[in-house]
From TrEMBL:
Domain FAD-binding FR-type: 308-423
Transmembrane residue ranges: 20-39, 59-83, 104-125, 154-177, 189-208
SUPFAM superfamilies reported in the protein's UniProt record: Ferredoxin reductase-like, C-terminal NADP-linked domain (SSF52343), Riboflavin synthase domain-like (SSF63380)
Gene: Nox4
Organism of this sequence: Molothrus ater (Brown-headed cowbird)
PANTHER family in alphabetical order: NADPH OXIDASE, NADPH OXIDASE 4
Protein name as it appears in the record: NADPH oxidase 4
Top-level taxonomy: Eukaryota, Metazoa, Chordata, Craniata, Vertebrata
Amino acid sequence: MALSWRSWLANEGSKHLFLFFWLSLNVWLFGKTFLLYNQGLQYYYLHQMLGLGLCISRASASVLNLNCCLVLLPMCRVLLAFLRGSQKVASKKTRRLLDKSKTFHVTCGVTICIFSVLHVAAHLVNALNFSENYNEEFVTLNAANYRGEDPRKLLFATVPGLTGVIMVLVLFLMCTASTYAIRVSNYDIFWYTHNLFFVFYMLLMLHVSGGVLKYQTNLEEHPPGCFNPNKTLRQNLTVPKAFEELFPDYTTEPFPEDPPVPEPFVQNSFMRVCSEEPKFQSHFPETWFWISGPLCLYCVERLYRYIRSNKPVTITSVISHPSNVLEVRMVKDDFEARPGQYVILHCPRVSALESHPFTLTMCPTDTKATFGVHLKVVGDWTERFRDLLLLHSNQDTEILPIFQQRRYPKLYVDGPFGSPFEESLNYEVSLCVAGGIGVTPFASVLNTLLDGWKCYKLRRLYFIWVCRDIESFRWFADLLCMLHNKLWQENRPDYINIQLYLSQTDGIQKIIGEKYQALNSRLLIGRPRWKLLFDDIAKCNRRKTIGVFCCGPNKISKILHKLSNSSNSYGTRFEYNKESFS
């Protein structure tokens, strides 16, 4: 049971603990800010029945400031890739936290949505209270112009109100388009609406500049609730009308000095004497401090990425594989990448704005500068991209020589960026499970091992690949055969354990080709028996830590995640890693 707890903590437990910590931090910040403003507004605003709504709006605003500040950091992909690949983050556990950047981004987004609802509800109450509870004694504190003003004017005719309404609409579009159903059915909608974040932040900068909430600047000269003799005497003094006509300026002049006040009155602890009227000033927009740093960092990174990717790559070959898979090989000056990383492709002839990520299946090395990606044609963007690359779409395979580069459209590559699969070579034993096209991140690992495996920590690799049709295995059948033959020649046949599963078939099938005999012997019909597979791996690797890497459907991912958290009698611990399609 102790081992099960350690496995749970290393995999799912760390995520749950972090979410609990983040929720507690936001709740604590909300409560702390609420109490702070509740004490500071207790006289001027609470006296008008305005304080509760203002305290809730300010407390929720502090939580929004924190999350709007941090939600951009997980999207700084260059920074994350640098931290993952540098020696600054030497701990494997710390590097695994970087893999949760997407989870942290989603968590901040959900927190923004929840506290935005609370913030909007509080301001709706504030607009009604400012209209009904107009303060005639301290006019500068009023957001309304007069008592009984239509609250809708405060919402639609002021800068804070109008920008807030537009921000709510933008946030609603971003949140609804970020759901799993929208991302899968129409990724374009998600991509375009998510880029409205820049509009959201610009409106946020304007929203906080309204200065609705004010604070007193002369607390020492005029403590809240104090007694002002000049003001009291002027209010109670009745001047004859005839005298007022002869001396019109008499009533407007203040007394030259404060009249003497009886000593017992001064010593009364419930009343203090003030020397001047209260002065109020709008709060400086603290939101600028919160979001200016991350926003500038993100903008600088985007500028760097634009400069880095402004030169198109040279496409060396395009190969059409079975089952609607396209392979693109290319070269680019000074391009370096590690196995497991991904790049973002942008083709202006396909779409002027859209860019899509693809995992590298071949990384450049010291001996060759070529790198490549495999992409499955499943949407409008990939269909148009395939039609532009292939001159004759009815041909199964087309490899064009480099002197025909004029036929290819311009293609820009941004990256590379880090992913969890970079750690697959840093374990002594790794289990890599792929489902269909999810084999792409492991293809770059296999290509790297083909060039040389002795320089890495990895000493045993379990490679499981599940496909629905037999033709899909031909995507990387040559690569698997070459790696198998190389390891046999080096007397290390146990270095890699290849298992291919054909989940749907009408009978016994084989990969076509005499050179694939080594793979035909490892081809199994049906689905893997995951529990037996994990038990067998744990038995052969007693008291070791095994990295589990999965790229495929969520059903397989959940099974592997559960098995990684379960205990075994061999002292073997599994650390789970995952990359999903969406």
